Amino acid sequence: MAILSTPRSAVQLASKGRPLREHLFRIALLASLAIAIAFLAMLIVYVVEEGWPRLDSTLWENQPSIRRPETAGIQSGILGTLWIIGLTALMALPTGILAAIYLEEYADKTKWYNRLIELNISNLAAVPSIVYGILGLGMIARWMQFGFTVMTGALTVSLLVLPIVIISAREAIRAVPPSIREGSLALGATQWQTIYRQVLPASVPGIATGSILALSRAIGEAAPFLMLGAATLVRFNPEGVWSTFTVLPLQIYSFIARPQEEFAILAAAAIVILLAILLLMNSVAIWLRNRYQKRW
């Protein structure tokens, strides 16, 4: 009986210590969340307070100017950012999702080239953005002769966020229960019908989360555009994919580098506009994610 009571006492001690560890772990998680929210709130309050004098219609109606900072705007940067993000979403999201479908549903895991592809995708997700800027400068702008245009910037940023889209989409597809696939196939559906009508709708919430992270990174990038030679002072709006362009992060960088106090206020107002575009874009993606979560 003494031998049998020893494991029971060990289980009782473990059960007594487990709530304490769980409680401490929960406190650590809540503390981390509170710290992150506090720093975000401090950032938002600071930039809104600094840029409040310039948060008016002239900010998005006027073009940038280095001679009259009190009336300068950021219209070319806003439209350039929207062009880049729109083209990046059109190119990176479908390509990444289709690549994830192939790797999860069709690829033979025993083949060496499929394992090599998976390894390279994981490595590319950790490559610094400046390296993609060098790639875009050498391959897209010069070798493909696209020049320093909107298309060059969008292709470069698409390559930057593509590994993130693929990895997040693979995880979302992998999280779909196998019973859904088996039930669909048992009812006579083909593999593609099962993927299109069952697997993809069930994985939309996870794919949307990965897309939010990918596009959020893309909208704040400046290093690739610096390598591509994107102009910081553009007084006209892009009219197509072959137009010269600038983006908000480059304009903010240019404004902050100037010694006049008016440019610091203008940079803070531009940061507020950039955050507003980011939050609006993320809100649409979160709405789509929640809509599909209710269905499934």
Automatic annotation (TrEMBL):
Residue stretches spanning the membrane: 24-48, 82-103, 124-144, 150-169, 263-288
GO biological process, alphabetically ordered: phosphate ion transmembrane transport
Signal peptide: none
Listed Pfam families: BPD_transp_1
PROSITE patterns per UniProt: ABC_TM1
Entry's family note: Belongs to the binding-protein-dependent transport system permease family. CysTW subfamily.
Full protein name: Phosphate transport system permease protein PstA
Organism field: Planomonospora parontospora
